[in-house]
């Protein structure tokens, strides 16, 4: 899978790939966004062992804290492939990549102009990269939710929950819910605020914009629906 398209008002070029496009050296320009979609089901036991060897001791310890095998696999593929991709972008070995956590838990690489973010759900992992900016990505499998409208009323602004409830049927309402939810998650991840940021402090508008009421600023977002009922949203700030 490979596709490129112009997005956002500042005319950034968004390209998304799968792991079949990983090469020894990958270039990313200041005007580009790269998003990699990985399917955990494509990695057999041999590949998993190779990926495990790439993790640091600290990462292996964090992986072992997950009780469920599916969660361990998501962590393994996400963090090892993050190291591999950063090594290709920066022309370094994977074990030379130093990753730190911000005070709100966002991974970053010190003294690097490449910003990245990671998200996973179900069998999918999304890894997003950009230069000289901050980026957030969120991918979700759109599982059926009977109470999505109530969740929206509890966590979203009234205009957002009203848009969800105004959809013509439950399936479209749930899809709109996941769209707004993933955009909100991607936005707070881009800023590095995590759970410290109220989801009601900014509004997800139509036509791909976010209104941040804390500083009266607007940002752009992009949403893509994938096969197997996955939805991914991306925000650059």
UniProtKB/TrEMBL annotation:
A Gene Ontology cellular-component term: cytosol
Domain 4'-phosphopantetheinyl transferase stretches: 135-233
Species in which this protein is naturally found: Dorea longicatena
GO BP field: lysine biosynthetic process via aminoadipic acid
Keyword Transferase part of the UniProt annotation: yes
PANTHER family: L-AMINOADIPATE-SEMIALDEHYDE DEHYDROGENASE-PHOSPHOPANTETHEINYL TRANSFERASE (PTHR12215:SF10), PHOSPHOPANTETHEINE TRANSFERASE (PTHR12215)
Family to which this protein belongs: Belongs to the P-Pant transferase superfamily. Gsp/Sfp/HetI/AcpT family.
UniProt keyword list: Transferase
Domain 4'-phosphopantetheinyl transferase N-terminal: start-end pairs: 48-128
UniProt-recorded name of the protein: 4'-phosphopantetheinyl transferase superfamily protein
Gene3D superfamilies: 4'-phosphopantetheinyl transferase domain
Lineage: superkingdom: Bacteria
GO molecular function terms noted in the UniProt entry: holo-[acyl-carrier-protein] synthase activity; magnesium ion binding
InterPro entries cross-referenced by the UniProt entry: 4-PPantetheinyl_Trfase_dom, 4-PPantetheinyl_Trfase_dom_sf, AASDHPPT_N, P-Pant_transferase_sf
